[in-house]
Amino acid sequence: MQWTTRGSVLLLAGALVALSGPFAATTATGAPGTPARPAAPAVVPHAPAAPYVPVFPYARAALRVPAAPLAPVAPVDPADGPDPIDFAVVVDQSASLADKDLARETEAAALISQGEISERSRATVIGFGSSEKPGQSPVREVCPLIAVDAAGRQRLSDCVQLLNDRDSARTGPGTDFPAAVRQAVTRLTEGRTPTAAGTPAVPKVVFLLTDGRLDVADSPEYGTDRDSRQANGARRLTEELARARAAGVQIWPLGFGGEIDRAALTAMAGGGYRGACSGIPGSVPRMRVVGTSAGIDTALQETFAAARCARIAHGTVGKPPADLTVTIPPIATDGSLTVAKHDPKVRVTYYDPAGRKVPAQGELDGSVFEVSGQNGPVEALRVTNPLPGRWRVHIEAPEGHGDREVAVRAIWQGRLRSTVVLDPASPRPGEKVTVEVRMQTRRGVVITDPGQLAGLAVTADLSGDGFSPVSFRLADDGRAPDTRAGDVRFTGTFTLPAGATGDLELLTRMAAPGIVSDRRPLHARAADGVPLVTAGLVTDAVTVHPGGTVHGTLAVTNNDTAPHTLRLALADQVPGAELAITPATVTAPPNKAVSVPFTVTVGPGTPLGELGGQVTAVDTGDGDRALRGTFLDVRVVAPPTWWDRWWRAVAAGAAVALLAGAFAGIRLAARRRRRDLTGVTLELCQEGRPLDSLTVRRGQSPGGAFAFTVDEPYGAPPTLRRVPGGSASTAHVLRRDGAGELLLRLRGGGQVPLRSGEPTGVGDHELVVRSGRAAPRGDGRDGTGGRTGAGRRNRGSRTGWWARRPGAARRAEPVGGPGARTGGRTGPEGRSGDPGAGTFPDAGGDYDNNF
């Protein structure tokens, strides 16, 4: 390997990168040596706790690092899952639709019926046209009202395909909106058990797809003549919308094409029930229009998501065979991956973010899966407690069935639970109370990324005996009482009404696209008079390894004449966290204030991620009255590996070795440069007259030595010739020592020093060596070009007998370089080429190569 200055510089740069790389890697994630945090928020669970603290029975941390095992998640009670919705997909089957438009409507209807995320929802699919002659009906109920559970979704997948079969004998070619709305409202208002007081009613929604406008001119039921039928149809539509509004049925019209009556669609959206799944403006019914039927599937899924307070994530598109992807965020608790495959022959396989193939039915690592629609044009995977991250959907198709693009999307909803801390935990009437709320999912994921909660509005309702309910707002804006903006801890205050007695109930409500509240209340108790015992709790905000400890301090003031025993409790723990608090109880002496340190031990099997939960202090002598609570602000990371401990030393050693190597390389390269003979010119002279010259080219002096000889052919002038690989026994050797001095070892003789420009005897001739810069490629005598100029050994005319030989004619040519000769002579060294730049006057005629 040859060392060069450039190579040495690159090696030195590599050493610096090796030394700085680990530090650079930690710059974006934390201090050097601190393990990088996963991009996704970690997980937090809920376990039963002592009275007067929030109790959430489910918990578990979903790690952003897919390979990390997750603690088991308790089965989700249906009532704890996503809220149900009853919906009707009403599809225009009038004669104005081309078959391809009807097929797209059918697939769109299948997408939302398969993509519904709650098994407690119900769905019906209705086609409509008009009734213009005996035997016809304006509506055709292809799917009755079906519960969207596993069996129901499969039934919907089958029956929705009947929309493609238009029967003109049974349904006329017109567009009877009033009949379609009437049929949908009738179905959606039957069969539900009345809800209990305080329980929200199940939303009822109609999604109406059409490419045109009201057309009942040929329908006898609207009048005896065409002129009155359209007006009567418009009045009937107004009446049906009023009926829908009274029944609490929303209308979401979706039109496509260029013949849409936008005013009529707007009136339908505004004429139905104006309630919404949340206070978000986007969840209020509105009409939507797309240019062609090609955009129906996307538009309808987005409309469906808005109506049921869900979010849509658009994935990739491709033709089989292919791997498509879609990302589910950490905040999602329920979702469905829908695959618009168009052809039932397309086969689909699903992989979670950990790269594991998920079952078509069943559980895996705390998630519950259910596939439907495998034999239809739309397939869906419903997931409860999905692992956050990028899901992969592999599609294959038999030959002849892979010509259409397949699209994957995910519709998801995040049902958040609020972990609440009150300060003081048991307020007195008239006392100002600070409320702090931290969000987590059912799976226990503690939300730490404020971007996940963009647009979230948090409010709380306080109720209890002796006062009217109080509502207040909580914010994460850094304004008092909130301490820091963007820490995903929402804070607010209220003043406990003077008439409050006994138990208190605090219910937090969240509103944002795709986010709903769990509606689980926090129970507390109003204090009677001035409490005799008060307490304060502080825990360290730290990063620990499994098996580590977290330190905290309990400060207690006991103004009673008797001692009080306080119990330290852990609430909202992550399943598998294996937390233990020491000491578990503290005795507060009478009439004293004490400060007691405590530790929370993190068990060796604790899942990695945000630990979450809280520590509470309760007074066992006062009915377990809660005195104070504080969040655990702890992140659990994997123990350091050997590399984590020693990478600095290894990197430093490697850098030193590389630097030493680079330094040695630089010295070696400098030495070689000093010994290099490139650019040195040898001139052969006789009595001061130049006879020939030879310049050392790059690469011709390996090891700082250049071997040459003097050829003296009969009848021709002597010349210099390089001898590749020659030694002192076969050639003269010119070399340069490490100090840059020139030395000449004559063939078979000793070594003598040379000075640049001074002659030295070589046989019967003189040799003058001149130092110089490297010659351009192609010069010199190497068999490819001449010794000078553009690659030619140019012989200039010389004075003396050679130039004046008999018969020589005069020819003037430019000649090149020192000692170059005009003209050229071909030979084994390639002595031909373009003339050089210099000249020697010709004193005796022309050299014509013919001697």
Search tags:
alpha+beta, disordered N terminus, 16% helix, 9-stranded mixed sheet, 851 residues, 42 strands
In round numbers, the mean pLDDT is 80
Instruction: Name the assembly state.
Output: single chain
Strand content: 25-35%
> Helix- and strand-based class?
alpha+beta
Number of strands: 42
* Major β-sheet profile: 9 strands, mixed
* Low-confidence parts: 1-72, 774-851
Number of helices: 8
Tell me the radius of gyration. 45 Å
The shape, in one word, is: flat
Helix content: 10-25%
Query: Distance between the terminal alpha carbons, to the nearest Å?
Result: 48 Å
Quick summary:
The chain has 851 residues and is an alpha+beta fold.
Question: Can you walk me through this structure?
Answer:
The chain is α+β, with helices and mostly antiparallel strands and 851 residues long. It is built from 8 helices and 42 strands. The strands form 9 sheets. Strands 7, 9, 11, 12, 13, 15, 16, 19 and 21 form a 9-stranded mixed β-sheet that branches. Strands 3-2-1-4-5-6 form a 6-stranded mixed β-sheet, with helices on both faces. A 5-stranded antiparallel β-sheet has the order 37-36-38-39-40, with no helix packed on it. The two termini are 48 Å apart.
